[in-house]
Amino acid sequence: MPDTLIAPRPGTTPDTAPRAAAKRVLSVRDMAVEFPLHQGSVRALDGVSLDLHAGRVLGVVGESGCGKSVTARAILGILDRPGRIVGGSVNLDPGTAEQQDLAALDPNGGVMRDIRGSRIGLIFQEPMTAFSVHYTVGNQIIEGIRAHGNVSKTEARKRAIELLREVGIPRPEMRIDAYPFQLSGGLRQRVGIAMALACEPDILIADEPTTALDVTTQAQILDLLRRLQRDKGIALMLITHDIGVIAQMADDVSVMYLGKVVEFASVEQLFNAPRHPYTRALLRSVPDIRAVPRQRLATIGGAVPHPGVRPSGCAFHPRCPEVIEGRCHNEAPPPVPPDQDGASCFRMELAEELVS
Ligand SMILES: Nc1ncnc2c1ncn2[C@@H]1O[C@H](COP(=O)(O)OP(=O)(O)OP(=O)(O)O)[C@@H](O)[C@H]1O
Ligand SMILES: [Mg+2]
């Protein structure tokens, strides 16, 4: 039975390193992304900051069009053309002698290609995107293993079988010679995870990894991801529009709206005391299985505007139930500090004034 209870899973903290003690492995600061189009440039990301920590899961949530996938693709240097990073930094190993700004690298160059795979693995929504239909899954995993290390074919095949076993593929010695289309969606996503792990990356980015799967398979794949992430101490960035997945999986959460992070908090804080009206609206829009049957679901009125027509002031103000007349239309609230809990909202400032 999949866990759809909208409450952070128990035991988030005991076996997970506290954020302050965990090693920061990737640090995105003020990242801006633009897509130059005929009609003018579309600013899809407008100053995104986030940190990934070893052994922790950062959930990234927001409605369709908020910029979740663009954030992932920009970090990995695989933005659709002509999209490009026009500001900010993406530091790998921040604060160490090895620190490297991925935003300054050629996205198609050798260094970036090596980082993709060996340091940062990617899991797609539809695993078929990651595969070629013409090769067996084994060949593709073996190729991944050999691309980043000096490993013999026999050794790589042995390792591929081990990986397939690790991700729960039954009879991996046989399945290794299957073609992707011969596998069910759930098995394909397990292979997708095996491929992402082939070169033992310490960072994983999963973009809606279970959206294409049925509910039961979805729960199994999420369990698998969580177990692997914990066992290997991986920093996982998990993108989803499903707040239930966030409750089940995340340690920390970045809530995105129209190309910005509007709230950042630990998962407990986010569910117990959401600071941004958008977060509150997202939480209200989820069916609570403890609620009276057939109770009407609350929804957020309106839709996310296109980034080409960003509203003035706070971009959420046209849909905000808590809008402050005369202020939110005209003035942009200060951004969320990148490394501490907070929200980009004047209401929060007012609440703090009341407290102090
Ligand atoms: N290839 C592209 N060309 C032009 N604009 C793009 C392109 N890809 C994304 N965008 C712009 O960036 C915005 C954010 O897109 P993104 O795919 O990151 O949204 P998302 O949060 O991942 O949504 P979803 O939940 O539907 O996957 C889009 O609304 C669009 O305006
Ligand atoms: Mg997306």
Describe this structure in words.
By secondary structure, the protein is α/β, with parallel strands linked by helices. It has a domain at 23-119 and 201-272: 3-Layer(aba) Sandwich (Rossmann fold). The chain has helices at residues 68-76, 110-118, 137-147, 153-166, 172-175, 185-197, 215-232, 243-249, 267-272, 277-284, 346-355, and strands at residues 24-37, 40-53, 57-61, 84-92, 100-101, 120-123, 203-207, 235-240, 252-257, 260-266, 342-343. The strands form 2 sheets. A 7-stranded mixed β-sheet has the order 6-7-8-3-9-10-11, with helices on both faces. The chain has a 4-stranded antiparallel β-sheet with strand order 2-1-4-5, covered by helices on one side. Mean pLDDT is 89; it is low at 1-5 and 289-297. It binds adenosine-5'-triphosphate and magnesium ion. The site of adenosine-5'-triphosphate has 16 residues, from strand 2 and helix 1.
SSE layout and pairing:
Layout: E1 24-37, E2 40-53, E3 57-61, H1 68-76, E4 84-92, E5 100-101, H2 110-118, E6 120-123, H3 137-147, H4 153-166, H5 172-175, H6 185-197, E7 203-207, H7 215-232, E8 235-240, H8 243-249, E9 252-257, E10 260-266, H9 267-272, H10 277-284, E11 342-343, H11 346-355
Parallel strand pairs: 3-8, 3-9, 6-7, 7-8
Antiparallel strand pairs: 1-2, 1-4, 4-5, 9-10, 10-11
Helix pairs in contact: 3-4, 4-6, 6-7
This protein binds adenosine-5'-triphosphate and magnesium ion.
Magnesium ion is lined by residues 68-69, 207.
